Amino acid sequence: MTDGTGLLGVGGHDDHDFLSGYLDGELTSEERAEVEARLAASPELRAELDEIRVVRDAVRSLPRRDAPAGFWDTIVANVETAADDDEVAVAGDLALVSDLGERRARTVPWRWIAGTAAAAAVVIAVFVVPGRAQVRPNVRAVATQHGAASSDMGDTISPLATISPLVRRR
Amino acid sequence: MADGVPTWEEVAREHGRFLYNVAYRLAGNDDDAQDLVQEALLRVRKGLERYEPGSLEGWLARIVTNVFLDEMRRRKRRPTDALPDDPGRVLPPAPAADEAQTGLSDEIQHALERLPEEFRVPVVLCDVSDLSYEQIADATGVPIGTVRSRIHRGRRMLRATLTAGGVGA
Fold this sequence. Notes:
Chain A is mostly helical and about 170 residues long. Chain A is built from eight helices and two strands.
């Protein structure tokens, strides 16, 4: 940190870089002792240390950001595909695409796949599922069986319980 | 895992969240983070033969950082692309009605996005990836004294941005 010239550095310019090094435990024991001596003598330096500590702690407390659901399955497949393509390109003496922007054109961005899947799910939910989910009794079958049961047993109520399975999805 | 070297699928499964988090803090948005992770994993897949067992997450952080810096250079060559590290060109998104509950985390993330990349990278590698200054110097190819200086200046810039935004950092 000091290149053997003390905390003020080679040019004597004190930019207080050592304060972050102090917070991060990146100083030697000698440098640390020197910083602590200067902190004890300077309220301004202590104030700056506190300010930097707050910022540092704030960044370190940022929550870990997670990828959206489905990202990893897609990305694994994408990487396999892209790697295979590169191997073919190298075998064919073609330029290896290392530019991310160019690679984007060759690999299917995972979010397109996720978006397409989401759109398909919406279509199914809106147009297909409601029709399948409508539960209607088969009126003709119910009436026929009810009538037959009534005439056979003379009881018009209890047979209904056995007819209920005729209710079906359309 | 053979000889302490994981397969790339194991890297994706066990360290993917770490990789994604670093990518997100560097890029500032999910779309770019996803692209960075995809490219980083491709490089991991190709480079695992050269990996020497040690700090795997340090190695991953270096890879995703290189992918990020490559992408920044590519965008600078194509100025029609937005540059999130240019405060004068890209401002933090205005809060929308449904973002009324935007919290301190978002403010800090926006402040990170406003840092020029030479400051953002070492701050993220230090405070998000938890790399040592030596590892950061190795990852970014700059002297350790420069790393120390950029981390400290980056933090001061962050504080200035947060304070100007009304966050009492």
